[in-house]
Write a structure and sequence with these properties.
There is one protein chain. By secondary structure, this protein is an alpha/beta fold. Helix content is 35%, strand content 18%. The strands form 2 sheets. A 10-stranded mixed sheet has the order 1-2-3-4-7-8-9-10-11-12, with helices on one face. Bound molecules: S-adenosyl-L-homocysteine (SAH). The site of S-adenosyl-L-homocysteine has 17 residues, from strand 8 and strand 10.
Length: 353
Amino acid sequence: MGPKCPNEAMAESKPNLYGMEREELRSVLEPLEVPRFHADQIYRWMYHRRVLDPGGWTDLPKNLRERLAERYRIEPGTISGTAGDDDGTIKYRIDLPEGGQIEAVSMIQDDRTTLCLSSQVGCALGCTFCLTAKMGLKRNLTAGEILGQVHLLVEDRDLGDAPCNIVYMGMGEPLHNYDGVTASTRLLTDPSGPGWSRKRLTLSTAGMVPAIIRLAGEPIRPRLAVSLNATTDEVRNRLMPVNRKYPLAVLLDACRQFSLQSRDPVTFEYVLLAGVNDSDGDIRRLARIVRDHHAKLNLIPFNAVPDWLEFESPDDHRVRKIRDTLLDMGIPVSVRWSRGRDARAACGQLAML
Ligand code: SAH
C-alpha cells in the first residue's frame, strides 16, 4: 500500500466533537480562543437541535464555523444497512466513527417507540444463549458512538422530539463499558442537550455486581433491568459464565441495594429456554425471588438462531401458561413477545457474523 494522501491522513486524525460533554467541549475549544458561550451554543446545536453541520450553526461567526469544520469531525456514525420486519421493527447496521460496526434497533408499537442501543462491539461475557457472545469483545463504544445511535435512529424514523424509550439492551454488556455508558446517560438527560427523562432509559445487565453498586450512587442513572435467566447457581453457571464470579445470592443482594438506594424497582428479565429453566419448580423459585425484591418481571421467549444457538423456546401455549401462573401469584409480569425475529433484530440475535 502506498502512503496515504495528506487529506485522508488529516481527516483520520481530526478529533470528533460529537459525544463530548459540556466541560470537555469548552476545554477542547479553549486553545482556539472559542469563548465558553460559543462552546455551549455548539453543544446545543449538536445535541438539542441535532444539527451537525457547522455551516448550519447560524448564531456563530462564520469564520469560527469554517475553522471548526476544518479542524474537527462531528460524526455520530452512519447507517450502512437496514433490515425491516413487518411488525414495525427496523434493525440498523451502523458504521462507527471510530471504526467497526454495530447494530441498533428501533421498535414502533402502537404509539410507543423504543430504541435499543449497543454499548460494545461484541461482548466478553459468553452467555451461551446469545448470538452477540459468539463475536467475542472487540471494543467499548465511546459516549458519542452510543448517543450517535439515538441521533441516527431519531433522524431516520423522523421522530423529532416525540418521547421514546431507550434501552441499553443491544450488543454488549453496558456495565462493562461503565464510563462510556454513564457519559451517554448524562448527555441524553441534559435538559440543554436531548433532554431525555431518565425514567425513559433502562439499562440491562447480565449482573456485573460492583458496577451495579456504583451505578446506584450516580446522581443520574437509568432504570435497571437484570438478566436473571435462572433460579439456581447450577443452571445460571451453565448459561451465564459471569455467574461464577458473581453468584445469584451476591447479585440479588446488589439488586436489593440498588432498588433501596435509587428507590426504583428493578426489573428481572428471564429468557425462557425449554427444558432448561422453565419447569414448574423454576417458576415457583422465580416468583419468590421477584416478590422478595419487590421487582417486576419480563419473560423473554428465547429467540432462536439456527446453526448458532442450541436452545429452544417453550411453545407459545406454555409461555402463556407460565405468565398466567405468575399473574395468579400476584407477580407483575409481562412477556416480551419477540419483535423483529425475521430481521434477526430480536433480543440475543444481534451480531456482525
Ligand atoms: N448484556 C446485557 C444486555 C444485552 S442482552 C444483558 O445481559 O442484560 C439483552 C437481553 O436479551 C438480556 O436479558 C438477555 O438475557 C436477552 N437475550 C440474549 N440472548 C437472547 C436470545 N437468544 N433470546 C432471547 N433473549 C435473549
